[in-house]
Amino acid sequence: MRFFLLTCVLSSLAFADQLDTLVLQHQVPDQLVPILREAFPDASIQGIQGQLLIRAADQASFDRIAAMARKLDQPSRRLQISVQQRDGTSSAQWVLDGRAVISHQGIRGGVQISADDQASSQQSLQTLRVMDGGRALIELGSERFVPAWRSGFVGEWQTAASGFWAEPRLVGDTIHLRIFPKSSRFERDDSVVIHRMSSDLSARLGEWVLAGETIQATTGSQSKGQRQYQVWLKVDAD
């Protein structure tokens, strides 16, 4: 009797679930499965040899999953990613000029204070093309040899470059993008200023968006200011 009841329960659960496969025409399962699982967390979705194995709670749920899968199963489009990196500095130089005169009438003195505001900026714009769902890397720069003396003449090569690594995924007119930009430049004092950033974002096609920003305050004995680094990007589709 208990065996019969258990069989009935399992049979009812089996009939309640909707299990079927969906053959993909253009995309591979690994590209669609994470998206579908995020949109339908209660369903079981797996990829098997160019097909999706979908287990849903009922027929209506299965139809919604299948409809989204067919919408995503489109020929891959070629995307153009444009990234602009802006590195700017601003500072105020304070100059103190003091003097004192000693005479029989006492001490006379004066102090003159002046301020000089300075600003500099550097921008780089880089563009690359990549297929939707693919990965791409671009890096352009230069090297220099910096000599040094440590128990003999030695030195090292330093690199200053700008570039980014990107992984785009297009859903409708919305681009989902993982991006890792970096920028470095030589300074007059032989140092190298380096910026790195990582971002996961979503944006509309053809729109410039701010991917990230850092602002760092700088202080010195006779100056103060700030360094600002921004990354702007835009993605277009052919």
Automatic annotation (TrEMBL):
**Which UniProt keywords are listed?**
Signal
At the top level of its lineage, which domain of life is listed? Answer: Bacteria
> Quick one: signal sequence residues?
1-16
> What is the name attached to this protein's record?
NolW-like domain-containing protein
